[in-house]
Write the structure tokens for this entry.
Amino acid sequence: MNVRTIAIACAVAVGLTAPVLADDMGKMSPASKTFDFKAQNGSGETGTVTLTAAGDDSTVVVIDLKGAPSAAQPAHIHVGPCAKLDPKPTFPLDSVVDGKSKTTIKQPISKLDDGTFAVNVHKSTTEIATYVACADITAAK
């Protein structure tokens, strides 16, 4: 075979497989999603939580709050939504300190972004019953 024949064969092969790859990629969850926190109980704490796929079976959860104190604030993923939060945490997260937290959990992002869960932040370890911020993890569209 000459170089030209090989080049044409490669171009045809790529052209035939590209639509298949696009279809498969269209069915996958995005690698990263960000959701907004809403302040609760007059805290004034707002910000975002970002979920990022970390392989097939884990998700990195990054919390970034504005107006948060420097003291540790416990955070969790609960069955939600925020308006009807199940008080029993489903996934514990590293406490928010100075408005920041980063935790890797053993759960694929595709199991978290189905509209079932919410992320909440508590006022402090001593005032665990007081929620200061919550973000609904809404279903993928």
User: Anything to note?
Assistant: The CA atoms of residues 19 and 25 lie 10 Å apart. The domain at 32-136 is CATH 2.60.40.200 (Immunoglobulin-like). The two ends are 48 Å apart (CA to CA).
